[in-house]
Amino acid sequence: TWAGVPPLAPPLGVEKPGRDSSSCACVVLEKVLGITAQTSSALSCDPNTGQIAYPTGCVIVILNPQKDKQKHIFNSNGHRPAVRIWDVEEKAQVSEFHGHIHGVACVAFSPNMKYLVSVGYPHDMVVNVWDWKKNSLIASNKVSSKVMALSFSEDSYFVTVGHRHVKFWFLDVSREAKVRGETVPLVGRSGLLGELHDNIFCDVACGQGKLLGNTFCISYSGLLCQFNEKRVLEKWIDLKVALANCICASEGFIFCGCANGTVRVFHAHNLHYLADLPKPHHQGVDVAGQETSQDVTYPDTIALAFDPSHHWLSCVYKDHSVYVWDVKNTGQVGKVWSDLFHSSFVWNVEVYPEFEDNSGCLPPGSFLTCSSDNTIRFWNLENGAQTDVWKNIYSHNLLKVLYVENNTQLLPERGENTNYLDVKSGVRVLQVSPNGRHLASGDRAGNLRIHELRCMEEVMKVEAHDSEVLCLQYSKPETGASLLASASRDRLIHVLNVEKNYKLEQTLDDHSSAITAVKFAGNGDIQMISCGADKSIYFRSAQKVGGGISFVRTHHVAEKTTLYDMDIDITQKYVAVACQDRNVRVYNTVSGKQKWCYKSSQGEEGCPLKVQLDPSGTFLATSCSDKSIFIIEFRSGECVAKVFGHSEVITGIKFTFDCKHLITVSGDSCIFIWHLSPEITTCMKQHLIELAPPCILTNGKLPMWAKRLLGEADNLDGAPFGSRVSYQPQGRWAERADKEPIKTMLGADLNDFSPLKSDSLQDVELEPQNLDRLLLEVRKAFALDLPPERGPPPSVGGTQQEQSAAEVEEMKWWFYPNQVRVCPQPMAKACTRSCRGRSRGRCQQAGPPFSYSSPPPQPWSFLPTALCNLPADEPSLISEAEAEATDLDENFQQSDSLPQTPEQEKLLRHHFASLAGTPPEGNARAG
């Protein structure tokens, strides 16, 4: 029934949110893309409104299919599984019962809403009847078989089905024998199965209206059975399907969900066959295309729920897609709503960059996710973002699905008794190039792929590593080079030259264990920072070697704890590292010295696994091993918000460029979009404005998202900027010493911050500036504009990192020419043919596989002039003056490292299996 959606308990629990009201106000769950329902017991429909409810991790989603709107109820489960009753309108918990040890398989309300029945997991073997208004257990009994489904009759009995099991339980007899204040045994009678006693019955539905007293069951073997009021098998029908999974009954119809997307419809009073519902999408469908394929397969139907008021039938399919069909006329069935989600672990999320005039390959506000289901999916939640090019009949949120190697075998979710086909399958990590044209992805077998996003074609595949690729990183244009770094569990880092058709420039083997993160840094120079499970952080700088490039180690930091992830702030000055000892350590990117160290969480249960800075560098988001998410003020380490929701370890976390949302992905196959409060968003935009004056002094340009935010900063949500109550960070950034730069920025021409060469700047020639002239300009600016008490600007200044705008502009023309609008896919045959031809050409030019031992030096002709003309005796692209300046960063704030408990070590091994070695072959969920 409607309020009886069961909490599917994962192996580890999460704490109930809402204990800290400030956290709930700062971060609110806005939308969930995913579903974790596996049977009809996890799908329910409101007979009055037509809303459907289903679990997504630890969250119950209440969906209005007509409006495509969601409401969310945060569940709580774990070592003590409970049956919880919620008020849907108030989103408040009404009752909570603890009567099961291992988990709750299914629940159901009685027709008069007085009683609630719950059935435990097979190891519990308990059926409980609760008087939920009095918070009491009135009847209970053991069950010897695995129960898979439960249905309540209007005639004071309920039926459970399972392995060779159909049993009728009667409440009237139990109540008569009930002693006041005590729980009495629940009376049950088995159904008379006859020759069908060896079947596994997977779902049950009790008759309604004129069929009161009849019970309908369905078996895995495809048999539809009808029992009369005397528990006798009266008739049965062979559905002629390979597999049957679920059943749903109304007063007039019986719906049977079967394999290959089949839903058969029968008359309820005589079981005469009426029709089949339309099939859903076929496996491997191109949601953005119009093609029709032959010999296709469809996902199995695994859950059904019927809305009698609207005559809507909700169907959940095995590939985690959901359809709502209008079955008022079985001869002309229509679709009300549908969506397609990931069917397995989601490993990574990336936000697509934004460009002027919407010249990118994807609509603004798009993001990408990759999964073990061997797909890369493109999403967009912006209203009106789906133009005619991207509109499709399957989803309002999904733009495109890339099937890696056209492999669709991993799309259906595997059952609990099915072995994984290939533990090395699935896309592990992805990264979008700064110009938005290329998508790099790495899979669990060590392959590196490059996709051209204008035509969505794979243009390159390289067997780059011997084990799964754990991280990919493109260098930003301001670094002066166009490089791609790939790191793997095989302890190697490959540096590829993007402009030379991803030619291998260098292979680094400094690490002695799995590499968990690699980043490029620098502003006019090139730095590479990497960390790994060997507890080491390596800082490297770029050198010219012959005609190529080589990274030389400058600093090596050895910690006493495993390092899981890292991110670099917008100023390129600091790198934040997530450590196993529950700390986040911040280092200077040039000197390698530790600047700050603070706790990543409030409790002592979880350590940070992922870390991500927002686009302004104001806040830091961490995801912990206890499945919690923390938002921390970057400079002070103060916790701003703490939220829960995922039922598995969180594998990816990203802020959107508009500073309004946080996206998290997890091993539970779900994508959560969290809405940040206006106070947090305003604080980010304010920090971006404070960062703008140094950008003007160095002729630099902000990216498109920063430019747009600066334009929005004075009028957020229709209110003046100064009138907003913004979040006040702690520490040295608690308040601004001077507000004049903000007035200057709001009055400035925003074209000065464009990331691309706009039409208004085509006639402007930027002359290259030497280092002495640049330093003189900086000194004058600091003497005239900035007060002494303001302190140094956030960006790295006074050295070679402050590269002139001419050099930056020159690099843009070399690396990233002007964007070309994406061709409409239904009409882009010429574009597709061109891309396919270019794909074949690139594959032919790719040459032999990597020679990882000693790659031949290649000319690096696209280096900026200032970098190519370095003195011959200069070994590094980082000046000594800059290194000396960063050596002044003292006053380290270190906290004691707490040793890991055995329980936490076991948890990390379970989710991040053997980062220091080879993952176990049988554990497909290893990170």
Automatic annotation (TrEMBL):
Residues 346-676 form the MABP1/WDR62 second WD40 domain. Residues 842-853 have a biased composition (Low complexity). GO terms for biological process: negative regulation of canonical NF-kappaB signal transduction; positive regulation of JNK cascade. Residues 1-20, 834-857, 883-906 are annotated as: Disordered. Keywords: WD repeat. Residues 891-902 have a biased composition (Polar residues). InterPro entries: MABP1, WD40/YVTN_repeat-like_dom_sf, WD40_MABP1-WDR62_2nd, WD40_repeat_dom_sf, WD40_rpt. GO terms for cellular component: cytoplasm. It comes from the Eukaryota. WD repeats lie at residues 367-389, 643-677. This is WD repeat domain 62. It comes from Salvator merianae (Argentine black and white tegu).
